[in-house]
Amino acid sequence: MNKDSKIYVAGHRGLVGSAILKNLESKGYRNLLTRTHSDLDLTNQESVSQFFDKEKPEYVFLAAAKVGGIVANNTYRADFIYHNLMIQNNVIHNSYLNKVKKLLFLGSTCIYPKDADQPMSEDSLLTGALEYTNEPYAISKIAGIKMCESYNLQYGTNYISVMPTNLYGPNDNFDLEKSHVLPALIKKMHLAKLLSENNKEQIIKDLSLENFEDAKEYLLQFGVTAESVEIWGSGKPKREFLWSEDMADACVFIMEKRDFKDTLSGSDEIRNTHINIGTGKDISIKELAETIKDTVGFTGKLIFNSDKPDGTMRKLTDVSKLHDLGWNHRIELKEGINKMYEWYVGKQ
Predict the structure, then answer these.
(1) Which domain holds residue 15?
(2) pTM, whole model, 2 decimals?
(3) Best label site of 223, 227, 252, 327, fewest CB within 10 Å?
(4) Contact predicate 139/108, CB 8 Å
(5) What 3-state DSSP class applies to 181?
């Protein structure tokens, strides 16, 4: 990519897309193309076709997606598979029709079987059953990988798929119903701390509710009180977390310096060309919660509700392929949580 190449970042307001845009800007890329959802509905085939016909981007970062935590994935199963398939199909196909030079598709490590060997290598894809709670979302992302591979093989395109581990960082989703575990825990601990301090004004502001009693009742639904915070599951599952700005740096690195051919294994059958992006390190949900509790300064109890599902017990990526391609993460988890909490408080 040249500094004046026309680059489209799809999903530029989200966690990953905003970090990619920031990274590109910091490196001097000046011909950046973005659209909000109200300006361009990526699930609308005609709108996407018209956009590509008019703008003719040379490079595409496909970071747009419908995402959410375990509750949202399990509740809105049809929404997750439909919206993600439509976004991917429209953007990838129109990239081909308009001769985009290179595309980077962002998926998720939930594509791997729930009982995959740990750490999970790219070759474990489609070797077993998926975790039920996010199966529709995972299938949509697997379809995206296969679409990129298939277009590369049939049409000679240069589309690369990357599978990030659990991400966190600026512009994350802190909605208690729909967010992922790390931002949800930060918000829960922060509000529990405010409850313990009887900081009514700040709680009402944070939740955008009209009065304190409504706020207390709302928080009680999520197990948040002045004395304790309830957390789904036993706390035993282990997860890997990557700072979103590290993820963005990996994406830009791959777009600048690597091609689809660099992902091939040499086998006659070309598959599993996607790249895991992570740290290669994991932590239990219990340890994560305790770290966040210390960072926020909440002094109450953590209650683990074992009646709620744990999901997959361990999810750790094998990042050997990524390291071989020349990229390593920089921000360790404790530093990242501190940065994340500072950002969250600063936005209030």
Answers:
(1) 7-171+240-280+315-331
(2) 0.90
(3) 227
(4) no
(5) helix
Crossing angle of the two packed helices 200-207 and 181-196, in degrees rounded to 10: 150
97 in a domain, yes or no? Answer: yes
What is the domain count for the chain? 1
DSSP 297-338: T--SEEEEETTS----SEE-B--HHHHHHT------HHHHHH
Whether 41 maps to a domain, the answer reads yes
Give tens-digit pLDDT for 68-125.
777 788 889 999 999 999 999 999 999 999 999 999 999 999 999 989 999 999 999 9
pLDDT tier at 310, thresholds 50, 70, 90: confident
Q: Give the residue numbers marked as catalytic.
A: 137
- Please give the DSSP secondary-structure letter assigned to residue 165: -
| CATH classification at residue 62 | 3.40.50.720
In this structure, are residues 125 and 272 in contact, taking their beta carbons and an 8 Å threshold?
Answer: yes
Residue 63 near residue 32, CB atoms below 8 Å: no
- Rounded distance between C-alpha atoms, residue 17 and residue 24, angstroms: 11
